[in-house]
Amino acid sequence: MRDITIIGGGPTGLFGLFYAGMRKATAQVIDALPDPGGQLTALYPEKFIFDVGGFPRVLAKDLVRSLLEQATQFGGEYHGGQRVVGLEEKDGHFELVTDTDRFPTRAVVIAGGIGAFAPRRLPQPAAAPWEGNGIRYSVGAPSAYDGKHVVIIGGGDSAFDWADQLNARAASLTLVHRSDRFRAHGATVAAVQAAAAAGRVTIHTFHELADVVAQGASIHELELKDIKAKSTRRVRADVVLPMLGYVSDLGAIADWGLTVANDEIAVNSEMATGRAGIWAAGDITTYPGKLKLIATGFAEACTAVNQAVHWIYPDRKVNPGHSSNLAIFGQKDD
Ligand SMILES: Cc1cc2nc3c(=O)[nH]c(=O)nc-3n(C[C@H](O)[C@H](O)[C@H](O)COP(=O)(O)OP(=O)(O)OC[C@H]3O[C@@H](n4cnc5c(N)ncnc54)[C@H](O)[C@@H]3O)c2cc1C
Q: Which is it for strands 172-177 and 202-205: parallel, antiparallel or unpaired?
């Protein structure tokens, strides 16, 4: 049983996890994505952000790393790869239900952003039987690709980042993209193109998956279709990594009796949702004057967590005092 469970490990949820720890509440984050960071990790890890206080400019992935370091200093956990699909109320507490687990909690903070992220799946019917058996939507440990024939499908940051990272390990690395316009960071595109010039990567533009050619129970080759020339070619493949972006969906949260419109939850100035024990913060909230920014999410996380702490432990004030004075950081006794 935790005091506070935060749905969503984007910047808002991660800062909320830190804040709960600072308030001596036990807390955890649940996120559909395997890795923390929400939109920053899924949509723009290589972009610079210029409007987070204290950072004249910071790469999105570096901000996530710092947030995680700050968030986990009090032992709060990040449960990745689990989508919250249900909320039950029993014996004076909640139980959040994911596709694989149950999380008992006294209070809930919904920091679900634009909804649960899931990788966009390959549209070709030939792919479906191989998902989880050769076709992987989550990369996992780079060492798993040592000596393997790897095909990456996509033209964005993730596709190029992994092509850059894995080409030295793989027996062969093929990058397949439907056009010749890449949406990845210029420096990473240049690195992969240099690897291609050196013969370590093969890039097929204007190609898409046509079929999977098996040998026994494993993928052996992919048949690729040249969408301009209408011809096909085969490439060696042990593992296929589709990197086609993400789809997001508010899912079950919309059915919890909260005021939801346009995939946003209406909250008051205390970030209260109207249902006792449930607060919301970050991009998922709406109120007059709302700004969907990382900085706003941080402030809302403070408000939501402080309200939740006071609700669970009425003897603890809503106002946390200043961190610069708190004993939890070894400062003047609070
Ligand atoms: C390209 C781009 C550039 C941007 N640049 C800036 C910028 O320069 N400055 C700025 O301030 N903002 C910027 N933003 C906006 C900023 O990223 C968002 O305001 C911020 O990510 C919101 O954080 P959040 O934690 O509220 O939500 P999110 O980052 O969306 O995180 C929500 C998390 O909740 C998870 N989740 C949702 N529902 C469930 C569920 N049912 N079960 C499990 N997990 C769930 C999702 O998987 C996700 O990981 C940018 C956005 C984009 C797309």
A: parallel
Structural domain containing residue 195: 121-244
Please check whether residue 314 lies inside any domain of the structure.
Answer: yes
DSSP string, 128-174: GGGBTTTB-SS---GGGGTT-EEEEE-SSHHHHHHHHHHTTTSSEEE
Return the residue whose CA atom lies nearest to atom 33 of ligand 1: 8
Last residue of a domain, one of 188, 211, 244: 244
Q: Are 32 and 112 part of one and the same domain?
A: yes
CA distance 334 to 331: 8
Alpha carbon nearest to ligand 1 atom 13, residue: 293
In a domain, 334, yes or no: no
> Could you tell which of 39, 84, 285, 292 is best to mutate to test the pocket of ligand 1, judged by most ligand atoms within 8 Å of the CB?
39
pTM: 0.85
219, 253: one domain: no
- Chunked into runs of 10 residues, the chain (334 residues) has average pLDDT values of 98 98 97 94 88 96 97 95 95 95 98 92 96 92 94 95 95 98 93 97 98 96 96 98 91 92 95 97 97 98 98 95 90 68
Which residue has the CA at smallest separation from atom 27 of ligand 1? 113
- pLDDT tens digits along 76-118: 999 999 999 999 998 899 999 999 999 999 999 999 999 988 8
